[in-house]
Specification:
alpha+beta; about 30% strand; about 180 residues; 7 strands; about 30% helix; Aminopeptidase
Length: about 180
């Protein structure tokens, strides 16, 4: 598939509903049979729009990947790590792409944009936590992330196995020529 020509930029409050849509669509595409239906159904467009509007208005680092024709097709959020015990000073909290645009470079561009913003803010190394059964783990490995930790988190009372991928420098692996 052809890579998309995207702009990665800081999200604005007016983007919150679209950021929430991408977030929900990605979860509904990725997690059926992995997370409970109750948890997935609890995510509402109104609730997610409010969540992301608040994050944006509180100057949290939220980025969007925007296409001239299709609008916002991806989102990411990042900041200081929530788990300093594993040796990384920053964390990408979320990175989601509209399922209609998987495999077209949006994830790479968002991760690159998040790393650039983290570098500007003085961070040096980054971790991303993912559900252990999320296929994004293969994307993170392809981007140069190394498996650095495992844990079990709780989501709405459910035990959720997670794995962490880390980058000791805020740079992505070079794109593989083998495809």
């Amino acid at each position: 598939m052809e890579a998309l020509d995207l702009t990665v930029r800081a999200a604005r409050a007016a983007d919150a509903a679209e950021v929430g849509r991408v977030y929900i669509d990605s979860w509904h595409d990725t997690y059926p049979g992995v997370l409970s239906k109750t948890l997935l159904c609890a995510m509402t467009p109104t609730g997610q729009a409010a969540r992301w509007r608040a994050a944006i208005l509180h100057n949290e680092m939220v980025l969007v990947a925007e296409h001239a024709e299709h609008g916002i097709i991806g989102m990411a959020s990042a900041g200081p790590t929530r788990d300093r015990d594993i040796g990384f000073d920053s964390e990408v909290y979320t990175l989601y792409v509209d399922p209609s645009f998987y495999g077209r470079g949006a994830g790479r561009q968002l991760l690159n944009g998040a790393f650039a913003q983290l570098r500007k803010r003085g961070f040096r190394a980054c971790v991303i936590w993912a559900h252990a059964r999320n296929n994004a783990r293969f994307f993170y490995e392809a981007m140069g992330g190394r498996l650095v930790a495992e844990r079990t988190a709780k989501m709405m009372g459910d035990a959720v196995p997670e794995v962490a991928f880390g980058w000791k420098t805020l740079t992505l692996a070079e794109r593989s020529m083998a495809r």
